[in-house]
Amino acid sequence: MLESIHHTRMRAALEEAHLAFARDEVPIGAVAVHSVSGEIMARAGNRTRELCDPTAHAEMQIIREICRLECAQRAPEYDIYITLEPCPMCAAALSYARVRTIYFGASDVKSGALTSSIQLYSFSPLHHKPVVIPGVLADPCAQILKDFFAQKRAQKNAVEMI
Amino acid sequence: MLESIHHTRMRAALEEAHLAFARDEVPIGAVAVHSVSGEIMARAGNRTRELCDPTAHAEMQIIREICRLECAQRAPEYDIYITLEPCPMCAAALSYARVRTIYFGASDVKSGALTSSIQLYSFSPLHHKPVVIPGVLADPCAQILKDFFAQKRAQKNAVEMI
Question: Which of B90, B6, B75 lies closest to B34 in space, CA to CA?
């Protein structure tokens, strides 16, 4: 399959996930692209552990960054690429920021709030519902999470064997 | 009715809502109380407009503050007082922060995520579900929002009459 522009952008989000993995954070990454220029304007990986901030998910960081760039509470000209389906916190925040389109990689069957566990944009009275495109590079986006949690389990078992 | 400790704390949250009103922000306020000392450790009003940040709801600011104080992603010894029922973003974040109890004032019939529109803690697979106590000083907490939006409508009508 040819590499589409969406794959290229999701690979940039995956790079952020890999950087998060190296920081011992749950490996989720995101980038924000301006829909007119096509440029990546913000990129982030999960930093909840480093920042002692349970709200420092990748998406929350890029929402804050693009709104800061726009000097506004809304960023309607941005498309967001996230390696994992957003949780309820991030799905709501992406709506408040009025982002145009959300592309995500792996589905989060347990905690995803767009197409999985809670379909927040289907049932709730949010003013703005971004277009949602799931499954962009779903396999590598899921694999990095599997690798991370497998490593965590192995570390835990090693400690228990001491 | 005697003034309970919960009323006193909600009045502190209401003060933050009044300060938000004075800044021309949607007047919602919150405080966080340490459950052992009983002290108010963080207080905030909505600052989405001032900070150009759609995530800068009162609750999100105090979550970040108490986790910063605790140097942790979790703050399980805190009780939160909020003048309005939290939205889905804040309700999820309060769960991630593992706060103990959420006391709120006015219900948000349209966008509330605890007892109104979406009952996030009833239906979703969140790991932690804080205890929820609604209706603390519900009337003044609702009235300040009514006053704010009435003022906004009057300002809009005045502009249209020019």
Answer: B75
Instruction: Report the 10 Å Cβ neighbour count for B115.
Output: 17
* Cβ neighbours for B80, distance < 8 A, ≥ 6 positions apart: B30, B31, B32, B33, B59, B62, B94, B99, B101, B102, B103, B130
| Separation in Å, CA A132 to CA A63, A100, B30 | 16, 9, 33
Interface test with A, best of B46, B52, B110 (most A CBs within 10 A): B52
d(CA A49, CA A20): 10
On whether any CB of chain B is under 8 Å from the CB of A94, the answer is no
**Alpha carbons A107 and A83: distance in angstroms, whole number:** 9
Max Cα separation, chain A? Answer: 56
Of all residues in chain B, what percent carry a pLDDT higher than 70?
Answer: 98
Q: Sort out which chain A residues have CB atoms less than 8 A from B90's CB and list them.
A: 89
What is the DSSP annotation of B13-45?
A: HHHHHHHHHHTTS---EEEEEETTT--EEEEEE
Express each pLDDT in A51-74 by its tens digit: 999 999 999 999 999 999 999 999
B59 in catalytic set:
yes
The pLDDT > 70 percentage for chain A reads 98
Question: b or e along A31-62 (b: 16 or more beta carbons within 10 Å of the residue's beta carbon)?
Answer: bbbbeeeeebbbbbbbbbbebbbbbbbbbbbb
- Most A CBs within 10 Å, among B26, B48, B55, to test the A interface: B55
ipTM at complex level: 0.94
Strand partners, B67: none
In the predicted model, residues of chain A with pLDDT beneath 70 are 1-2, 124
User: Is B52 in contact with A70 (Cβ distance < 8 A)?
Assistant: yes
